[in-house]
Amino acid sequence: MKRILIALPIILLIGFTVFYFWGSSGSVDLGQLNSKIVYHDNYKKSFDTVEVITYNLGYLSGMTNNLPVDRGDELFKENLLSARSMFEQIDADIIGFQEIDFGSARSIYMNQLDSIAVTLGFPVAYQSINWDKTYLPFPYWPPSQHFGKILSGQAVLSKFELQPIETITLEKPINAGFFYKSFYLDRLIQIVKLNLGGSDIIVMNLHLEAFDQETRVAHGHVVKELFERYAADYPVLLIGDFNSESEYVSSEDALSIIMTSSNIESAIVKDQYFNESTKTFPSEQPDRMIDYILFNNTRIQKVESRVVKEAGQISDHLPVMMKFIIH
Questions:
Q1: pTM
Q2: pLDDT(23) > 60
Q3: What whole-number distance in Å separates Cα of residue 229 and Cα of residue 317?
Q4: Is pLDDT of 4 > 80?
Q5: I need a surface site. Which of 68, 121, 264, 307 has the fewest CB within 10 A?
Q6: Cα separation of 173 and 99, whole Å?
């Protein structure tokens, strides 16, 4: 009995260690986390205006995102059809996705990027994986929801020729513990260069920290520095889920820092921030704006912008679109 009592903690420790490394490990090699995907080579060469959309897709789970519920196959199939229909009507040239799945158990192992890109005829995408886990202890209950492959991330779809520049992994929550960080997604900034009929433009697609404001503020400083660096030489679109309300709502958050950048402008202007039609989250009853399209107004001129209300509850976010020309 004494030997058993001595051995038991060792056995439990070994078991926990094996489980930890199994659960937190991924299936994708580090060199394949960021990849350019070419579907065909029929790139768009001429245009009058360009249309861009940013959309936190919430892996097509609608208002069930982050809830411990069994969703069923039909929800994802119906939301995929709705997303395709919406994108066909809008006919965007550039789409930046956050929270898009590339083959996860939680979303019936559907590669959502390929399913959308192929149907809409997009020639090229840049994919970055930020969540590659075998086990995910969230939501915390019930534990039965924790098992199953997670392969998710961000993507930029383009009708123009695309050159990946870099993908930057942002700092994980400063105030979180080691175990939490081990299973937490990476917050990314994807940076690509697009050739718009002879003119180059930089697209920065980001997803900032949601739960820890101190970390999100740190992210804001990184984003500002990057935006100003690229904006010195190129037209720049800074798009994504900022998880931060406008500087007119909160003066001590990431967006307030980013908006101090030189020559930066928002597709949704100051007078629209408090209009109900510009709220993006939650899609069921939007009460805040946390998704944005920003740009350097010395090189880009906005023609039109709006929150895409017709997206409904495909995701728990609503997309934002902007039509623009390059100076």
A1: 0.90
A2: no
A3: 29
A4: no
A5: 121
A6: 18
